[in-house]
């Protein structure tokens, strides 16, 4: 009996994977990464065993979702590189990225967890960093951003914007925009005689090493996982 993959089975596999990623994206964004696999499978409208044929572990599913988010952010940054006003372009990127951090709970949680260390995630995150470096450099050349700010600073500060607004998010959902503007205003070139920043910016290598340090073996799914109990 032939075990070759047929064109139909390959098409079905791609479709199923897409359905699972879309369902997981919605679930993680609203509820965070603790959402049970069973819920994602139900929302995708698939059978219980399908998810483990597409993604060996939950970490692999999370990594697929995170990769797409990073790709969206990278594309957004790249689309702004030809804007005439480089300062406005950087602000536009930061606003779009902060909105993702605020609106996608699972993505924000993933930044300090193992799925960020997956090679395919790191590859697209490096694409994002490169695009942000270009945005920052252009803004610095136009005098809109201080010379000692780096792309790593920008990406880490976006997390600070989210954390600052989080306690009041339910009652003041747009509060993050205030803190984003405060952060952005702080990036402006300081007046002559200013004191230097107390600590140098973390390097790109340090930022990327933080992702590599999250790597850990992904546990194989247990029998209970495979049953996908509700």
UniProtKB/TrEMBL annotation:
Residues 14-73 form the HTH tetR-type domain. Coiled coil: none annotated. Residues 191-230 are annotated as: Disordered. InterPro entries: Homeodomain-like_sf, HTH-type_TetR-like_transc_reg, HTH_TetR, Tet_transcr_reg_TetR-rel_C_sf, TetR_SbtR-like_C. Residues 36-55 bind DNA. The keyword Lipid biosynthesis does not apply. Pfam families: TetR_C_43 (PF21597), TetR_N (PF00440). Keywords: DNA-binding, Transcription, Transcription regulation. The keyword Transcription applies. This is AcrR family transcriptional regulator.
């Amino acid at each position: 009996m032939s075990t070759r993959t047929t064109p139909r089975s390959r098409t079905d596999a791609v479709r199923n994977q897409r359905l699972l990623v879309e369902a997981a994206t919605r679930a993680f964004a609203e509820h965070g990464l603790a959402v049970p696999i069973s819920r994602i499978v139900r929302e995708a409208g698939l059978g219980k065993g399908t998810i483990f044929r597409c993604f060996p572990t939950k970490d692999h599913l999370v990594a697929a979702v995170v990769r797409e988010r990073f790709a969206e952010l990278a594309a957004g940054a790249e689309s702004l590189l030809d804007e005439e006003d480089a300062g406005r372009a950087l602000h536009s990127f930061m606003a779009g990225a902060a909105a993702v951090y605020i609106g996608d709970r699972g993505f924000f949680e993933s930044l300090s967890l193992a799925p960020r260390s997956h090679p395919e995630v790191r590859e697209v995150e490096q694409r994002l960093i490169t695009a942000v470096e270009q945005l920052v450099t252009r803004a610095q050349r136009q005098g809109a951003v201080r010379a000692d700010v780096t792309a790593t600073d920008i990406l880490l500060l976006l997390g600070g914007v989210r954390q600052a607004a989080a306690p009041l998010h339910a009652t003041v959902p747009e509060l993050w925009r205030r803190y984003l503007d405060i952060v952005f205003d702080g990036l402006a070139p300081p007046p002559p005689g200013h004191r230097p920043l107390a600590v140098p910016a973390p390097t790109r290598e340090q930022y990327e090493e933080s992702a590599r340090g999250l790597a850990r073996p992904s546990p194989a799914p247990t029998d209970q996982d495979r049953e996908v109990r509700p």
